[in-house]
Specification:
- The chain is about 90% helix and about 0% strand.
- By secondary structure, the chain is an all-alpha fold.
- The longest helix has about 50 residues, at about 1-50.
Length: about 150
């Protein structure tokens, strides 16, 4: 029984640290490939039915829209808020467990460490947002002017 407990204690971190990230990446790549295959099938069917059609215009319509720089920066800000909030909650949980007492010190340390890691990641997102906002201000303004001119021309 002790060997089985030791084996489980060893396999769970390996599964969470290695297998889970690989599976997530595999699912993401698989979804992108399926989306690309579906767009290709739509394009081929459209060309078969009407060989005179403008393929470039159709590709623009069925291809996914690229995110603007401002949207990417706002996504970083959002994730920064989420991770800092979760980090603060976990640090508070660790402090609360320490004050209440009766809990294993490794549980308190684990919650506090994960909270610190999440807070650091959130701060990195904030830094990335503010630096990106400062460095890409001209590009963001040019993108907005381009969108405005495209909207006016339609």
């Amino acid at each position: 029984m002790i060997v089985l407990d030791h084996l489980v204690n060893m396999l769970v971190p390996i599964a969470c640290g290695c297998v889970l990230p690989i599976m997530i990446i595999w699912f993401i790549i698989r979804k992108k490939m399926n989306d690309t295959n579906q767009r290709t099938q739509i394009l081929l069917a459209a060309i078969e039915k009407n060989p005179e059609m403008d393929v470039e215009e159709l590709m623009d319509k069925i291809s996914p829209k690229k995110k603007m720089l401002k949207e990417k920066l706002l996504t970083k800000l959002l994730w920064g808020c989420i991770t800092v909030s979760l980090g603060i909650v976990l640090i508070g949980l660790g402090a609360g467990l320490g004050l209440v007492g009766g809990y294993d010190s490794s549980d308190i340390l684990t919650a506090t460490c994960f909270g610190c890691i999440l807070t650091a990641i959130g701060i990195a997102f904030f830094i990335s947002y503010y630096v990106g906002k400062k460095m890409l201000a001209k590009e963001i303004e040019a993108e907005e002017q381009l969108l405005t001119s495209q909207a006016e021309s339609k």
